[in-house]
Amino acid sequence: MIDNSNNSWIEAVKQRNKTQKLLFQALKLDTEARTLLLEDITDPSIRTQVETLLLDEEERTRFMETSRKDLAPGDQINRIRIEKLLGQGGMGSVYLGFDEKLERQVAIKSIRPEHLQNPATQKRFEREAQILSKINHPSICQLYDYMETDEGDFLVLEFIKGQPLYQVPLTATQKLEVLRDLAAALAIAHEHGIVHRDLKPDNIMITDQGQLKVLDFGIAQSLSQPQPRQCNDEPVEAGDGLTQQGSLVGTIRYMSPEQAQGEIIGTASDRYALGIIGQEVFSHQAAYPVMETEQLLQDVRHGRHKPITGLPANVTQLLNDLTQVDPEYRPTAPETVARVQDIILAPQKKRQRRVKSMVGVAAFLLVSVLVWQWLQFNRQSDQNQRIKAYESQIKDLVEQSEQIYVLPIHPIEEEIGHLLEQAQLLFGTIHNDGSISETARQRLQGIIMLEAEYFNQAIPLLEAGHAEPALLAEAWTALYIEKASNFSDQHGLTATMQSESLRAQYLEPALKYIKLDQIEGNEVKPIYQAFVSSQTESLEAGLKAVNAILEGQHWNKKAVKLKALILSALAEQAREQGQWEQADFHPDPRRHRWIAPDRA
Predict the structure, then answer these.
(1) Alpha-carbon distances of 462 from 381, 417, 471, 572, 579, rounded to whole Å
(2) pLDDT higher for 460 or 221?
(3) I need a surface site. Which of 199, 467, 557, 591 has the fewest CB within 10 A?
(4) 153 given a catalytic annotation
């Protein structure tokens, strides 16, 4: 028996879907093309309904609301398969999809069908696609495609796996890096004549790898049409029908004063938002004391945010400059990048000045030290004898340093301080010894820096001093282990072992000098054999070799560091394979340097 009522319902659904499809097509056409489309509709009832919906906006809105259907897992949009809903907004929804052709996950941003009847809304959606297509920067979400379908319009975007900015715990240095990367992203956008206009923490993501990403250019504005009125000496465009002068677009808390007053804005408005975000990132408090809309709007219009307190002076000055009420006095995005980078590097520059100062003091004291050195070396006029004597002193300091740590636990500050004084005097003596060549001097100073574990400074000195491959192999190997350890702290051991940058910059030079040392006929040191095995054979082979070293030298610093790196890599490997017992390892190698006790 045939269920006629069910068949009728199915036919009604089919007719409604066909009507909806034709309506969406008609909304995108001009009058002439729309007339031709209607004439081609063979079903009189469908043609009549489409014509009615096109003429009656209220009826059309009701029809679209009842026809609206969110995408479901498994739905197909061209070559994109929908996996799940990520979020919803006023204009549409964002889904996680899978590009079956390119075999990658993507984010699908939709515009609701009912918005297609509003040309301004659709134009804003298209403009976001046009803006993103102009910008290519690692800190800006990439646009892959723009698709127009009968079901609606869709942006195919880079899928960003991470968390919003305010949900990520950051160190002081990481906060500065966020400010720098955000300014760098704005610099690229501004260079292409784009103002974001809605820069806020919700539109900033931090990926699982620690990369900053700026999202949502939906209300961004192009500065491509110069107008007589200008802001901060930058051309701006008149209203485009979407956000005319006098209307407010964006989020009030992060607007610039001129934006909150409904004025035409330029790139300086984004930089004000950058300053407000920076203030909140560093202070962990809202920049404005009130949240009530009317009072908040008045505060924003006059730039009455909370005073910035409790931060380093250079950070406070930068944030105050970015949030100047007058746009003309706000630093540009490139200037902000440079200033933040200077703040980040300030501690390192301070340490460099301190080292230079210490060398200067040592040089001042050398008058008396050289007398003592002359008495010691008055029978050694030959340069080689002097070099050997210096090498002997360096070796003696190293042995004293190592002896401190193999003795039973005891206060070591005084002993380390004494070694520090001797090392500084020796460095200065070598620096001012005119009886040895510049090449020999650089080699000796490179050895001191190597033993002090300042590998970055040791390598150029050793290379300039034509040092033996064995010394350069030791320096490059130690530098790679140090860089790999630091890199793994932020990106994980798997990413570290796979990093082409680390390999090219540090690992390959280490392997090159190890091989050169072998070619010269020298027996490869066990620590290098262990290191090479871990990198070219397997982690297990490297661990076996380093354990053999530690059986006879239980406090070999280089072996301890290499073992810690190998064990960490093995632990992460075990975690990835679900072998939790093998993954339960927490390396904590004891480190010390005799030339700088504050780094011990």
Answers:
(1) 24, 26, 8, 35, 44
(2) 460
(3) 591
(4) no
3-state helix, strand, coil in the chain (%, to 5): 60, 10, 30
d(CA 558, CA 510): 14
Tokens of 172: 């002081």
Q: Length of the chain, please?
A: 600
CB 198 within 8 A of CB 251: yes
Q: Which two tokens stand for residue 193?
A: 């004549």
Active site residue: 198, 216, 299, 433, which one? 198
User: Could you give the residue ranges of the DSSP H alpha helices within 239-289?
Assistant: 257-260, 267-283
DSSP state at residue 102: T
Torsion on CA atoms 416, 418, 422, 424, rounded to nearest 10 = 70
Q: What is the mean pLDDT of the chain?
A: 77
The span from the CA of 41 to the CA of 60, in Å, is: 19
What pTM does this model have? 0.48
* CA neighbor of 524 nearest in space, from 506, 503, 510: 510
What type of residue sits at position 518? Q
Side chain identity at 219, as an amino acid letter?
A: I
pLDDT average, residue stretch 185-210: 89
For 40, which DSSP code?
T
Buried b (16+ CB within 10 A) or exposed e, 561-579: bbbbbbbbbbbbbbbeeee
